[in-house]
Structures are given as structure tokens and as C-alpha cells.
Design goal:
The chain is α/β, with parallel strands linked by helices. The chain has helices spanning 78-81, 89-105, 150-160, 208-221, 260-265, 318-329, 348-351, 363-376, 411-420, 432-442, and strands spanning 8-16, 22-25, 31-35, 42-50, 54-64, 117-118, 129-137, 184-190, 197-199, 231-238, 244-250, 270-275, 287-293, 296-301, 304-309, 337-340, 357-360, 381-384, 399-402, 424-429, 446-454, 464-471. The protein has an 8-stranded mixed β-sheet with strand order 6-21-22-20-19-16-17-18, sandwiched between helices. Strands 9-8-7-10-11-12-13 form a 7-stranded mixed β-sheet.
């Protein structure tokens, strides 16, 4: 049976809402949440999801364009990775500030100062970590044109310095004949709001070293007896020096998918082939099959050296993160610091002082944290536990730093803070909506001393927001 065609609606878009979509109202009165549009535009939207009270969709035609609209760099894939490529950067900064303000207003919290969203001005090529999916087209297609231009190569060379000469060559993307029959293997991202995939030639947010290495690995796999269905993802990470490490996650334990000699030819300091249980959609490590070179990275933050695994949590936009660290540091006094949700210790070990307590749930991150503590010669204490299971570390005589995941604080953490009433709480959040909810709960004992936004992820709707809370 043929699939029913998706319905198309014409609508005037109203405002950007939390999450990054634009809100409109259909003639029926039903609310529409659309990707690919801007406030004030009249557009045609192809519906992708229909619920009783709202619908979702993506813009397929623009009848009246906003004066904030610009052409996206990644015309075929920007909705998957960075849906705000369509607006000016000034508009992006404005909307991010407005979304922070709206999140707090929903909880009747008036922020004491106008919202400033810090940016270092770098809009593209800032991501130091990218996870690619795979796409296999069984119809023979013409190979893409050269994806790594001379201009990009020059940018890589200039950024990496004279010693990184391996990036200067233009990547030849003219591979045609493949050992896997008539399937064309390509890097891909999932289509937003769908299980489908879009093959990609580039990603404008990724550091050029990452995209160059990704294409090298793709071209290598095109010479192998491997299809997209055998593969799960390709994770690539690089440090501030431009040194890259890769992890190829595969669904089948294929022998010799990458040889040592082949791995040495890649523009990376190391990599791994990892079997990941296909029953899980996530790229989890089930079994490490092959290891090549150095598989951990090293970066320096505020004079402190950090080691971290490719798969572990580490900040994606280091220059903006350094600004946030400096802003948090000025609010610390001589009290001992407890760094909850600490990852590999990038906050506690840089600004937390000699005797910081670092609480983290992920065993791999704690292992790297302990290594960082040892190499630093610090007296910091690493605690392997979920924050809600380490409440004894929250006490009156401590300064508390919070950097939770998007879900925000566990209720028991909030209850312990209200019970112990530490003098100051420094709360950095990647989700102002849950942060505002948590601050509203803490408002019975705390007031907002200072706050600031950070554009860690330009050209996307994601926002980071710092709130400093002082005991009333």
C-alpha cells in the first residue's frame, strides 16, 4: 500500500519557542511547531507529526521571508545539525537571550540584570566532537565533487600551525569503484523528526580536521566489503591542537575492517574499532575490537592539563567554556568547593582550589578524573556516584558548583541544598528551562546574585546559562 502523502499547510509564523522551533497557528486553531522558519514569515509547512492538540512540521516553501533570513551553509542537512543557520548571528543572539528570559518568566522569576549572551564570534568550525551515522544508497550515483576545498585546507593549515602539515593537502573525494558492490557508502545524519537519513559531504560546525578525517575513513571503508547496515556510527574528536582520535562503532564483529598500516595513513593520532550491540540505538561500547595509536586526548584549561577519553564528556566549544570558567571563578571565596556532575573535573580542578570534592556518575570519566588529579598533584577528592547518592558532600560550609545534564537537578539534591543552606550555589546549565524550574524551587532560601548566558553552540538553539545564587 502506498504511503499517504504528508499534508501541507500554509501559515504565518509567530515566535521562536524553547527547543528552537517557530510557533504558528493553523486555521483550525491547532498550534504548529515548525523547523526551518522564522518569526513573521508566511510559509508552507509539510506536517511530520500530528497530535490532538498540536502538529509539527518543516518549512518547504517561503512565501514571505524575514529580513533576518540568510542562506544556510549546509543546505541539505542544516535541519539535522544546526537549524539556526538560516538567521543572522545578531538574530540568534537576540533569540537566545529572549528564550532565557522566557524560561524564567514562566516561573515568575525576574532576572536582576539584562541578559547578556557571551560569544567569541566564531559561528562555524568550532565543534571538537562529531558523531556521524552512515548511509548506503543501493542505486549507483555519481561521486560527490571534492568536499574538502583548498579554502578549507588553508584554514586548517593556518589554525593548526606549520607543524600540522598533514592538513594542507586537498582531500581527493573521487573514489568510485568499491568492494561492496553497487552500494555507495556515505556519512550521514538523521533527518530531524524522522528515522530517515541524509547523506552529507560536509558539516560547517565541525572543525576542518574532523571533516577531513571523516572523509578519509569513509573513503577507506568504501574499499572494503562492508555496507552501511554493518555500521552504526563514526565518532571523531579533536583537541585544541587539532589532534584527532576516531572510534568506528560497528553492528557486526567484522574481521580486519581497518588494518594497522591503513590506520597509520589517517590524519589522526589514534583510533578504535568498537563492536556496539545492535539492539541498542546508542553507540555504547560492547567490545573493543582494534586499537590504533593513542586513544585519549589532552587539552589545557586555565593552565591545567586534562586527559579524556574520546567517548567521555568534555566541552565541545573550549574557547567559550574558558570564559564561563573565568566568570564562575570570580564568585568563589575561600570555602571548600563541591563540584557536582563534574565529568573529568574541568570545573573543580581549574577553579575549585586544592581540596575540591568532585562527584561524577560515569566510571570512565572518574577514571580520567583520577588520572588528572594525580598528574596535577592536587588534593582533590574524586567520588564515583550519582549526585543524588552523594548528598553528604553538600553541607553548610561548602561552596556548591552544579553543572547537571539537560534534565536538571534531582529533587533530592534540591532538598539537601534547602536543608543545608550553603552560602553560595553556582549553577551552570545547558537547559534554561529546567534551570529556571530548579531556581524557583530554591527561591525559598536563595536569591539570584548574578547570571550570564553563553553561546556554546552557535547556529543551533542550544543555550548555556550561569546563575549565581546567594543565601537570603
Amino acid at each position: 500500500m502506498a504511503k499517504k502523502p504528508l499534508k501541507i499547510e500554509t501559515v504565518t509564523l509567530d515566535r521562536i519557542v524553547g527547543g528552537g522551533q517557530v510557533l504558528g497557528t493553523l486555521e483550525s486553531g491547532k498550534k504548529l511547531f515548525a523547523w526551518g522558519g522564522l518569526p513573521g514569515e508566511v510559509v508552507s509547512v509539510q506536517l511530520t507529526k500530528q497530535k490532538s492538540s498540536f502538529v509539527e512540521g518543516k518549512v518547504i516553501e517561503i512565501h514571505t521571508a524575514s529580513d533576518q533570513r540568510i542562506e544556510p551553509r549546509d543546505s541539505t542537512s542544516y535541519l539535522s545539525t544546526s537549524p539556526w543557520q538560516i538567521m543572522t548571528f545578531e538574530a540568534e543572539q537576540h533569540y537566545k537571550a529572549a528564550l532565557i528570559e522566557e524560561a524564567f518568566e514562566l516561573h515568575d522569576i525576574v532576572l536582576p540584570e539584562p541578559i547578556d549572551v557571551y560569544s567569541d564570534g566564531v559561528q562555524y568550525e568550532y565543534r571538537n566532537k562529531v558523531e556521524f551515522s552512515w548511509y548506503g544508497d543501493t542505486v549507483r550515483v555519481e561521486p560527490f565533487a571534492n568536499e574538502f576545498s583548498k579554502t578549507s585546507a588553508a584554514r586548517v593549515s593556518a589554525a593548526a600551525g606549520a607543524t600540522e602539515t598533514r592538513h594542507e593537502a586537498v582531500l581527493d573525494d573521487s573514489v568510485g569503484e568499491k568492494a561492496n558492490g553497487d552500494e555507495t557508502l556515505d556519512l550521514a545524519f538523521f533527518v530531524r523528526g524522522s528515522k530517515g537519513k541524509v547523506p552529507i559531504k560536509t558539516m560547517s560546525l565541525a572543525r576542518p580536521e574532523i571533516m577531513k578525517l571523516a572523509l578519509e575513513i569513509r573513503n577507506l571503508l568504501r574499499t572494503k566489503a562492508v555496507k552501511a547496515r554493518n555500521l552504526k556510527t563514526l565518532l571523531i574528536r579533536c583537541n585544541q591542537k587539532g589532534e584527532c582520535v576516531w572510534q568506528l562503532y560497528i553492528k557486526d564483529e567484522l574481521p580486519d575492517i581497518v588494518h594497522q598500516a591503513e590506520a597509520k595513513e589517517l590524519s589522526a593520532i589514534g583510533g578504535e574499532v568498537i563492536y556496539s550491540d545492535p539492539r541498542s540505538p546508542a553507540s555504547k561500547i560492547t567490545k573493543r575490537l582494534e586499537t590504533f595509536g593513542v586513544t585519549t586526548l589532552q587539552d589545557e584549561l586555565l593552565g591545567v592539563s586534562f586527559h579524556y577519553a574520546t567517548e567521555s564528556f568534555f566541552q565541545v566549544n573550549i574557547p567559550v567554556y574558558l570564559q564561563a570558567l573565568g566568570d564562575m571563578k570570580q564568585w568563589l571565596n575561600d570555602k571548600p568547593v563541591v563540584d557536582m556532575y563534574s565529568g573529568v573535573g574541568t570545573i573543580g580542578l581549574t577553579i575549585g582550589g586544592e581540596h575540591a570534592t568532585l562527584v561524577e556518575l560515569d566510571p570512565a570519566a572518574v577514571q580520567e578524573m583520577k588520572r588528572n588529579i594525580t598528574e596535577l598533584g592536587s588534593n582533590a577528592t574524586a567520588v564515583l556516584a550519582a549526585s543524588e547518592n552523594a548528598l553528604e558532600h553538600i553541607s553548610t560550609d561548602k561552596a556548591i558548583i552544579l553543572d547537571p545534564p539537560r534534565a536538571g537537578l534531582h529533587e533530592s539534591v534540591i532538598e539537601q541544598l534547602l536543608d543545608q543552606k550553603p552560602e553560595r550555589i553556582i549553577y551552570l546549565s545547558c537547559n534554561p528551562v529546567t534551570q529556571a524550574r530548579d531556581v524557583a524551587r530554591l527561591a525559598e532560601a536563595y536569591g539570584i546574585r548574578a547570571h550570564n548566558g553563553y553561546n556554546f553552540f552557535p547556529r543551533t538553539p542550544h543555550i548555556e546559562h550561569l546563575v549565581v545564587l546567594d543565601l537570603r
